[in-house]
Amino acid sequence: MMKETFLGVDVAPVTYKRVISEISRNIDSGEQSTIVAVNPEKVMEACKDEKVRELINSSTLQIPDGIGIVWASKWRGGQIRERVTGIDMMSYLLHFAEQKNLRVFLYGAEEDSVSKARDNIEKHYPNITVAGYENGFDGNEDQVVQQIQDCQADVLFVALGSPKQELWIRRNKEKLGVKVFQGVGGSFDVWAGKEKKAPKLYRDLNVEWLYRLVSDPKRIKRQLALPKFAFCVLTKNR
């Protein structure tokens, strides 16, 4: 798949359906898939940290999670035309797992969040198999890996925050028979009902960042990554 590059960071020009199609093809060919959500904040972090850039670029699919990525692609005449958010990609993968009888494992977040997320996922997808879960505060990584292996998980969602979750996946993916890995940040908190998605109006207008900023003004430092990203894209030819 041809990918677009922004400040040295690869992003795949995909839709939700295209991601599912690619994953299905990889499963059929016995290949593992790793999905990482890319937004301007993550790109700016990758500009400062080569390790983060390499983590992103070595993933199978880098989905365009931020509206800034879509804007940058359009400005350059690229092919990215819509956001593919991490939380919604997780929902597509859960639906795919339910349809294909794939076993799901949830790893990360606090115990209350991950357990409630499991309960709500099972209610929303009554035919899904959540083979197991573990909170993100168990310090014994080898035991967690063994637990995932024992559950014969096919799809693994890791909610440890970025880049910790991507580092965890890279360290352990070859030890596991998991077919699909996705780092999902705070998605378990959303599934648990602790955090809310932005209202539909904000999502339709592509200003979820504004909703999050109003809801949590402390995010202002993180949101400054968007104008920095825009400036760099406009002034640098890479």
From TrEMBL:
CDD domains reported for this sequence:
Glyco_transf_WecG_TagA
Q: Which UniProt keywords apply?
A: Cell wall biogenesis/degradation, Glycosyltransferase, Teichoic acid biosynthesis, Transferase
- Report the record's Gene Ontology biological process terms: cell wall organization; teichoic acid biosynthetic process
InterPro entries, per the entry? TagA_TarA, WecG_TagA_CpsF
Q: What does the record give as the reaction this protein catalyses?
A: UDP-N-acetyl-alpha-D-mannosamine + N-acetyl-alpha-D-glucosaminyl-di-trans,octa-cis-undecaprenyl diphosphate = N-acetyl-beta-D-mannosaminyl-(1->4)-N-acetyl-alpha-D-glucosaminyl di-trans,octa-cis-undecaprenyl diphosphate + UDP + H(+)
Give the EC number(s) listed in the UniProt record.
2.4.1.187
What class does this enzyme belong to in the EC scheme?
transferase
The signal peptide annotation in the UniProt record is none
Superkingdom of origin organism = Bacteria
* GO-annotated molecular function: N-acetylglucosaminyldiphosphoundecaprenol N-acetyl-beta-D-mannosaminyltransferase activity
Q: Cite the annotated pathway.
A: Cell wall biogenesis; teichoic acid biosynthesis
UniProt lists the family membership as follows: Belongs to the glycosyltransferase 26 family. TagA/TarA subfamily.
Role played: Catalyzes the conversion of GlcNAc-PP-undecaprenol into ManNAc-GlcNAc-PP-undecaprenol, the first committed lipid intermediate in the de novo synthesis of teichoic acid.
**Record-linked NCBIfam families:** wecG_tagA_cpsF (TIGR00696)
Which PANTHER family does this entry report, sorted A to Z?
PTHR34136, UDP-N-ACETYL-D-MANNOSAMINURONIC ACID TRANSFERASE (PTHR34136:SF1)
Instruction: Spell out the protein name for this chain.
Output: N-acetylglucosaminyldiphosphoundecaprenol N-acetyl-beta-D-mannosaminyltransferase
Organism per entry: Salimicrobium jeotgali
